[in-house]
Amino acid sequence: MGSTSSKISTEIELIKSRRNLEKVIDNLNLMEYFQAKAENPEDVTRNSVVRALEEMITVSPVSDTNIVRISVQSEDKELARSIANNLAVVYNDLLKSLSQNEYTARRRFIEEQIPLAESDLNAAQDDLRNFKEENNIFLLDEEAKSILQFLVSYDQQINTYQIQMEETKIRLQTLNDTLKSMDQEIISSETISINPVVSNLRNQIVNIQVQLAGLEGTKSPSDPEVLRLKEELNQAQEMLKNEISTIVTSQVKTANPMYISLYSQLIQEQAGQQVLQGTIQSLTTLRNTYQSQLKQLPALEQRLMNYEREVRVKENLYVLLLEKLEEAKIAEAGVIGTASIIDPAFVSPNAVKPNKTLTAAIGGILGIFLGILVVFLIEYLDKKVKDENELKMIVKGYPVLGRIPHLHVDNETKDELIVLRDPVSPISEAYKMLASNINFSNAKEPNVITFSSGGPAEGKTMTASNVAISYAQSGNKTLLIDADMRRPRVERILNLKSKNVGLVNHLLRGVSIEQSVKKPFESLNNFFVLPVGTLPPNPTSILTSNEFKDLLDKLKEYYDKVIIDLPPIMVAPDAMIASRYSDGLVLVTRYGQTLKPTLKAAIENITTSGVKLIGTVINDVNEKSSNYYYYYYYYYSDDGDKSKTKKRRRKTRT
């Protein structure tokens, strides 16, 4: 699978190569085509046309085959067809030219060597003839003939391997030139030759080949000694190839399958070159042994044999070159492209783009997911408390004492005292339930109760006022104290006209408590109010004073319920200070207004300060934030009629 995948990947890279694209541009005159379509022909460059073709062309493998598919998309269907067909032809021509490069280089090399070999042969023949005529010696004795035969045989083999060596060098040069054109690092033969491991293995090959040559005349090919040496020779050659592979692959810096394929060929050629070098070296060693025997012959006979050998060697070399030339010519002429065009390009009967059905489907799916994502982001980024579960997760361990539905406040009357104005309404009943839950929250019924919130505008003053009125309506003598000395609202809710006498005046100026306490409603005898009075410069110092603590001790003996409205916890420390003198704190929250981080910080402050938290209250309860909403309005609708419930609900919502 790996080799097939690598081959197909190489083919795809070759097809999309810039060389092929530029050839297609030239063949189809695409520069003129794109310039004619462009608003500004000067902006059309060769690079821009190449980039345009790269975007138009897709080359993909056909699954489980050695086939690739070329697809071209364009508004001009005939242009797309022409580009696809021409690219296939250009690609095949490229494969043919890549294959021809090696054979062409071999042919040119041999053609250059033949005239030189012919000239050397003629000169050797002339020298032999002149020597025979001058010295009147024409024949060699039997010993000299035997030596000459061996020398000529070895010279002939050496010449053959040297030609193979030159051909290998040419193939290596072709591969290195290709790698250079791709900006890849090349590995020279010298780098491999000087490697000590390669040099040692090459010497082993030479020694084994010399030993084999010595046994050829005395032992048969099946002799155990001969077989052992051949096995050692194969092992040495395989080790040499593996070592060269390690050297070459260590230089490969890319995963491109085309480059890896070229490096594989480079490894084969480098290994072959080293084996050839070892073979030539071993043959040279063997020839030199006979060369030493030649020196023992008479001088004239030595010279005659040298001339004879020179002629035979040159003649064999000349014939060998002629044979190699014919082989190279045949191989070069027989090269064809290795790719076959199975089907020519055809124009799709239907436009591939835009696919309206697919676009609509994708748009619908993306619309759904984007809608979900937007909702998720809105929910995630919205830090406000939106339902009762979120509130309970933050105030773990503390009960929800009351759930107050939204109160519609008339813009003209600004009446927020729903318990006084409409005592049997669902909202009034919710406040009364809150008051009852506060009473039953402890083993001992709380007498002094403080109300606060995490932040502003969460309904703490309205909640404290309506709870105080609920207690008063139940027969409890109740005092509502406005201790929010920063932004007091009790006076405005109760519509008190005199605002210059109150809690601050009693504590700082000695005004009697009887003058400071007000009775806002004649119809409600048990309900009294202690407003702030004159706003002080330092509210915190008043709440921390002993006078304030002593005042609370006196008031809780005189009143059944003392309700204290305090500033928000995160605005000032007043709520934490005053709540220490109370029987417990009620924390007021509001859906859509209370921020979760603010509420968490308020709970942490309450816990840290040691103030007793009785529980929490939720304002602006609706059908989305709490199921209690339905219970209130279903019960108070006529005969449980849902349609009347909805009408009542609309009247009580903003």
Can you walk me through this structure?
This protein has 654 residues and is of the alpha/beta class. Helices cover 62% and strands 8% of the residues. The chain contains 25 helices and nine strands. It has a seven-stranded parallel sheet with strand order 3-9-8-4-7-5-6, sandwiched between helices. The chain has a two-stranded antiparallel sheet with strand order 1-2. Helix 9 crosses helix 10. The model is unreliable at 639-654 (pLDDT under 50).
Short description:
With 654 residues, this protein is an alpha/beta fold.
Extract low-pLDDT stretches: 639-654
Q: Which word captures the global form?
A: elongated
Q: Tally the helices: what do you get?
A: 25
Largest sheet: 7 strands, parallel
Terminal CA distance reads 72 Å
Q: How many strands in all?
A: 9
Residue-averaged pLDDT, rounded?
Answer: 79
How much helicity do the residues have? 55-70%
Structural class comes to alpha/beta
What structural keywords apply?
elongated; alpha/beta; 7-stranded parallel sheet; 62% helix; two-stranded antiparallel ribbon; 654 residues; disordered C terminus
Topology:
Elements (H helix, E strand, L loop, with lengths): L1 H14 L2 H11 L1 H8 L8 H11 E5 L6 E5 L4 H59 L6 H40 L7 H5 L2 H20 L8 H26 L7 H38 L4 H35 L22 H26 L6 H7 L5 E6 L12 H4 L4 H14 L8 E6 L6 H14 L4 E5 L7 H4 L9 H7 L3 H4 L10 E4 L8 H5 L2 H13 L2 E5 L8 H6 L4 E7 L5 H14 L3 E9 L6 H9 L5 H10 L3
Parallel strand pairs: 3-9, 4-7, 4-8, 5-6, 5-7, 8-9
Antiparallel strand pairs: 1-2
Helix pairs in contact: 1-10, 2-4, 2-5, 5-6, 5-11, 6-10, 6-11, 8-9, 8-10, 9-10, 15-16
